[in-house]
Structures are given as structure tokens and as C-alpha cells.
């Protein structure tokens, strides 16, 4: 168990008051926790600013009732080693709650009030088991989740889906800011970025930024020009067989356009190992060229199509020219359309557009991948909303060893504490 994971457990035990009075102590002082306080929360798409882990805590310390903020660490020395102890943001901290007091800290000339919190052995054991299970995708938590009432499952899934959408929307907004606020350019860059998985996203984004949207608009519906631009800038025309007449034609078109538009090749890396042939960059770029030659300005087209319904959106991406399968079309809707429309709605204050975008999750079938296959025995995945929740759970919590922050893991530990009591 790492220091970070230990810290997460102590924060969970403290915040949910999953401890007995005998589990907490202070050097040479009687201690009784009246109120552990409240963890600060960030708004949608915002990061929690540096500062105390809990505010408005109330602790009987000796003969006095003291109220103030709390800092959590696995070991007392870590606060100093992190450099955060001198940060003015931590001035309100009244108590330092730790699992081990390996150093006496002095702040502003006064010894820091330290509370030593020792979670129950059963809590530690279950938490360690959950961390081991997380490596395999949270197998134990999947079984636990299956035992929960349907209403409780829905609440957890809704929270996870909302978290994932907030993260994706924040990525769209960050790209838009970097492009000077232009939604047309943002839609184009986000579309190409959505073609990749994992680290490939960065390569597709770099490619999009190296071919400004105006270049594709000037192709005026010429698919060959659009394909030459994307394939040439990606580097595939340099390594392709020159004996292929089609490739030679694309090379000639690309070299002419590259000189005309003054394009510079980006440094991109395509990690194609283990990816199906239809998902490899050359095929995806050909499909993208077909779409962008037909609809270079995606933002307005997507907004209009969303007003007509799911069929119109699928037609936009799954036309005969693109060669995109229905499953790939739905992935574009999940990973590109919904976050983009949500971000556009937030920017313009259009609540209807945001609601319409969120509703699209329910109209798309759940994704089939290693995460959903692992959890499909725990409950029936009915739509993309459910599969997005599962992916959020497996990647952002299980994949990061964040069991003590996970809504399922937290509930599992809370249930154990109720049994211990």
C-alpha cells in the first residue's frame, strides 16, 4: 500500500467517521471527535484548489473544544516533505490527522496538533483486498455492486457517467481555449482526436493542428485532396509503396498542397500494435477525409443534426462515403458528439442543447470492451450511459488504485463498518 493509498484510506475513515474513539489518539491529550468536518468540492470541470482536506471540524482536545480545518497524511513527515506545510492555503489547519507520527512538526513556531488515526484491522484488510482486486478491474466490487438495490445502482452509475462527461467536456473546453475560442476549429480538432485510443489521441490532435481547417475547407469537397493532406501530414505517404498508382497520385497532390499552404509536418507516433486493421490510422484517416470533404465545418452540422435526432447524427457519420460501421459511428457519438455539444451548450448557456446531448447516451447501445465484459455479470448494461459509467469506474478508480475515493469502494467499506459496529 503506497503512502497515497494509505492517505486515501485515512481520509475516508476520518470523513465518514469509520472509527471508534479508541482508534484515534494525540500525544499526551485526551481526544474526542465531535465532527470530522466537510471535504471541499470542486465545481463541474474544476480541480480542487490546494488547501485543507476538511473544514469546520470540531474536536475535543484536552479540556477544550477546538474548531478548524484538517490536513490528512499517511505519515506526519510527508506534509513537510511535500512543501505544502509553508503554503498559506493551509493556514486554517488546526489538526494534522496521520496514520503514523514519524516526525514532530513545527509550524509558525508552534508544534502542530497531531491526531494519530488507526483504522480498524478489518478495514485495512478489506482495503488491501480491494487494491489487489483493482488490478483485475475491481472483480470483488463488481460482485458487491450486483447485491445493491436498483435505485442505489442507478445513483452510482449516474454519478460516474456525469464524472466522465465532465472530464471529456473539460478537455473540449481546453482545446477551444487553445484555438482562440473558435468552435469550428475546435469541432474539427476534437473529431480527429476522437479517432484514436489512449496515446493515439495526442497523435491525431497533433495532426489536426498541423492541417488548419481552412485547408480542408479549400478542398471544396474533393475527397482526394482531403485524403492527401491527412495521409501526407501523418507521414504514411512517405513509407507507402510508390508502385501503387493511387499512392503516387496522393503523393503528388500532397506535395503540391503542402507547398501551397506552407504546411509543416508534425511529429506523430502511431501505436498500432494489437489494433484491428480497420482501426489503424491509414483506414481511419481515409474515413475522416471522406467526412471532412463532405462536411468540413462540423460544429453547426452536428448541432442541426442533433435537433433532428439520432438517425440524423448516424447518417452524418455513417454515410456510404465514409465506410464507417454502425459501432464506430456510435463511438464517434459517445466520444466526440456528446462532449462537444455539451461544451457548446455550456458556453452559450443553452440548457436544451446540454440536455439533448446528455439524452443521446440513452439512445446508443452500450460499448463492448474488456471493462464492460468484466462488469456485465454484475448488472445489465442497457445503454452507453451505463458503459461510460463502467469505463469511468475501471479507468479512473480501479486503474489508479483509488478504491477509497470510488463510490463503489467507499460504500463497500462503509457497509463493513456497519457490520463491525
| Major sheet size, sense and barrel closure | 6 strands, mixed
**Shape, per Cα inertia axes:** elongated
Q: Which structural category fits the helices and strands?
A: alpha/beta
Instruction: Write out the strand line-up for the largest beta sheet, numbering strands in chain order.
Output: 1-8-5-4-3-2
Protein name: Protein of uncharacterized function (DUF2851)
InterPro entries: DUF2851
Organism: Rikenella microfusus
Defining key terms:
DUF2851, single chain, 421 residues, 19 helices, six-stranded mixed beta sheet, Protein of uncharacterized function (DUF2851), 2 domains, alpha/beta, two-stranded antiparallel ribbon
Description:
The chain has 421 residues and is of the alpha/beta class. The protein folds into 2 domains: 3-119, no CATH class; 158-370, no CATH class. Helix content is 54%, strand content 10%. The protein has 19 helices and 8 strands. The protein has helices spanning 3-15, 77-81, 121-134, 139-146, 150-178, 183-193, 200-210, 213-217, 223-234, 236-239, 245-261, 281-294, 298-308, 310-317, 326-348, 351-360, 370-375, 384-397, 407-420; strands spanning 24-25, 31-35, 54-61, 64-75, 93-100, 106-107, 110-111, 114-117. Helix 2 links the parallel strand 4 and strand 5. Helix 3 runs antiparallel to helix 19 (407-420), helix 9 crosses helix 11 (245-261) and helix 9 (223-234) runs antiparallel to helix 12 (281-294). The chain starts with a helix and ends with a helix.
Amino acid at each position: 500500500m503506497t503512502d497515497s493509498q494509505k492517505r486515501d484510506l485515512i481520509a475516508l475513515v476520518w470523513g465518514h467517521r469509520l472509527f471508534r474513539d479508541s482508534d484515534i489518539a494525540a500525544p499526551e491529550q485526551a481526544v474526542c471527535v465531535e465532527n470530522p468536518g466537510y471535504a471541499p468540492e470542486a465545481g463541474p470541470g474544476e480541480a480542487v484548489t490546494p488547501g485543507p482536506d476538511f473544514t469546520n471540524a470540531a474536536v475535543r482536545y484536552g479540556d477544550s473544544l477546538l474548531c478548524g480545518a484538517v490536513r490528512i497524511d499517511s505519515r506526519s513527515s510527508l506534509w513537510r516533505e511535500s512543501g505544502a506545510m509553508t503554503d498559506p492555503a493551509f493556514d486554517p489547519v488546526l489538526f494534522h490527522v496521520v496514520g503514523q507520527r514519524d516526525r514532530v512538526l513545527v509550524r509558525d513556531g508552534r508544534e502542530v496538533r497531531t491526531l494519530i488515526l488507526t483504522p480498524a484491522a478489518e478495514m485495512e484488510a478489506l482495503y488491501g483486498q480491494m487494491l489487489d482486486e483493482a488490478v483485475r478491474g475491481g472483480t470483488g466490487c463488481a460482485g458487491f455492486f450486483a447485491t445493491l438495490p436498483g435505485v442505489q445502482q442507478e445513483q452510482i452509475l449516474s454519478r460516474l457517467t456525469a464524472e466522465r462527461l465532465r472530464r471529456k467536456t473539460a478537455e473540449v473546453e481546453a482545446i477551444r481555449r487553445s484555438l482562440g475560442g473558435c468552435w469550428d476549429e475546435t469541432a474539427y480538432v476534437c473529431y480527429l482526436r476522437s479517432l484514436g485510443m489512449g496515446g493515439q489521441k495526442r497523435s491525431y490532435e497533433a495532426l489536426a493542428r498541423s492541417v488548419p481547417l481552412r485547408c480542408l475547407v479549400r478542398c471544396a469537397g474533393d475527397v482526394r485532396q482531403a485524403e492527401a493532406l491527412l495521409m501526407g501530414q501523418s507521414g504514411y505517404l512517405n513509407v507507402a509503396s510508390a508502385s501503387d498508382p493511387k499512392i503516387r497520385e496522393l503523393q503528388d497532390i500532397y506535395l503540391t498542397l503542402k507547398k501551397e499552404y506552407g504546411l509543416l509536418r508534425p511529429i506523430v507516433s502511431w501505436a498500432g500494435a494489437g489494433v484491428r486493421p480497420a482501426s489503424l490510422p491509414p483506414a481511419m484517416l481515409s474515413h475522416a477525409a471522406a467526412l471532412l470533404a463532405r462536411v468540413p465545418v462540423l460544429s453547426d452540422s452536428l448541432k442541426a443534426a442533433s435537433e433532428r435526432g439520432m438517425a440524423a447524427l448516424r447518417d452524418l457519420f455513417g454515410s456510404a462515403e465514409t465506410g464507417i460501421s454502425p459501432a464506430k459511428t456510435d463511438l464517434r457519438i459517445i466520444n466526440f458528439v456528446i462532449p462537444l455539444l455539451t461544451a457548446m451548450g455550456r458556453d452559450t448557456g443553452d440548457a436544451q442543447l446540454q440536455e439533448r446531448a446528455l439524452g443521446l447516451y440513452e439512445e446508443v447501445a452500450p460499448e463492448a470492451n474488456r471493462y464492460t465484459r468484466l462488469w456485465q455479470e454484475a448488472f445489465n448494461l442497457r445503454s452507453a450511459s451505463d458503459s461510460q459509467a463502467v469505463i469511468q469506474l475501471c479507468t479512473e478508480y480501479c486503474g489508479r488504485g483509488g478504491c477509497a475515493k470510488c463510490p463503489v469502494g467507499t460504500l463497500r467499506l462503509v457497509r463493513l463498518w456497519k457490520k463491525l459496529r
